[in-house]
Amino acid sequence: MGVFDHSDGSEAAHEQVVFCQDRHTGLRAIIGIYSTALGPALGGTRFYPYATEEDALSDVLRLSRAMAYKNALAGLDLGGGKAVIWGDPARLKSEALLRAYGRFIQSLNGRYYTACDVGTYVPDMDLVARETRFVTGRSPEHGGAGDSSLLTAWGVFQGMRAAAEHAWGNPTLAGRRVGIAGLGKVGKYLAGHLIEDGARLVATDVSEAARDWARHAHPEIELVADTDALITADLDVYAPCALGGALDDDTVSALRARIVCGGANNQLAHPGVEKLLEERGILYAPDYVVNAGGVIQVADEIEGFNFDRAKLRATGIFDTTRRILELAAQESVPPAAAADRLAERRMSEVGRLRSLHLR
């Protein structure tokens, strides 16, 4: 199946899809640029052992489109893009491969800025940056923003506060029971914010190391066996903070929480899940709205990173989430639909200015 007739019609509007290969290093990468209406496309690089090339292509198309919407609602003058490197990072990742990948990014002449994602880390971006200047998420030693999960978690916390205000009239999680699925970098920092706010936490993670961290750092966290046990627990808020597709028909049917708000990308397993959440009276804070703190952090690096400035911008996720939830209620649509409308409006209205001729 080709890019132009991809099965999901919403993903067929990409401006550019680039296939990159370097046989000597084993590099096989796909860069998807969904839109540059607001500016150069920005999105991370995912290094993952996809089962097939079709799976890799589907992921990059889906993720790059989501980045366009995320960047638009974050108020950034940046378009949406994403890249995937097809392969097992534990086996294939090398300095030569990452630098070869950087050469391909440089060849796009600034149409795409990359950053970290699943399977890639700050030291990897430092290597990519040796071949291209169109990279963010570098280490502070190299003038970068460092670990973007810091402000990702902060933004999710702000979105959760806005959802709490909408549901219960008070922008705090104090006394609420919050379930976190995934205690990786984002989930770990989110847990700290919630504990400081007075929430009661229940959590799970497939990693024994992550569970050990919780036992030692926050023994007050109640650990459960798996995600199934978490979604059926008596929760006020469910926070998916692992991989995407966390919300499908079965999950939503079993979920007992009043709010869903987490750091994972692409939480809705398929179109229509947002309507199931609405029918069950579950308030969904759209993932690409609340987890935009990370992209705000790495985007700030482009103009010379300042953490306090980036954190202030990420704090604005509270107001953005509140606005989306209010619009959804006014127009009687799910919050995901309201978020899409606002993002599309900004891409259209601000992007239109690019058509004005400047000498």
UniProtKB/TrEMBL annotation:
Pfam families xrefs: ELFV_dehydrog, ELFV_dehydrog_N
PROSITE patterns registered for this protein in UniProt: GLFV_DEHYDROGENASE (PS00074)
Record: active site: 82
Listed SUPFAM superfamilies: Aminoacid dehydrogenase-like, N-terminal domain, NAD(P)-binding Rossmann-fold domains
Record keywords: NAD, Nucleotide-binding, Oxidoreductase
Molecular functions per Gene Ontology: nucleotide binding; oxidoreductase activity, acting on the CH-NH2 group of donors, NAD or NADP as acceptor
Coiled coil feature spans: none
Residue intervals of the Glutamate/phenylalanine/leucine/valine/L-tryptophan dehydrogenase C-terminal domain: 146-355
Listed Gene3D superfamilies: Leucine Dehydrogenase, chain A, domain 1, NAD(P)-binding Rossmann-like Domain
GO biological process, one term: amino acid metabolic process
InterPro entries registered for this protein in UniProt: Aminoacid_DH-like_N_sf, Glu/Leu/Phe/Val/Trp_DH, Glu/Leu/Phe/Val/Trp_DH_C, Glu/Leu/Phe/Val/Trp_DH_dimer, Glu/Leu/Phe/Val_DH_AS, Glu/Phe/Leu/Val/Trp_DH_bac/arc, NAD(P)-bd_dom_sf
Oxidoreductase keyword on record: yes
Keyword check for NAD: yes
Residues that bind NAD(+): 182-187
PANTHER family for this protein: LEUCINE DEHYDROGENASE, VALINE DEHYDROGENASE
Family per record: Belongs to the Glu/Leu/Phe/Val dehydrogenases family.
Protein name: Valine dehydrogenase
Organism: Mangrovihabitans endophyticus
Upper lineage: Bacteria, Bacillati, Actinomycetota, Actinomycetes, Micromonosporales
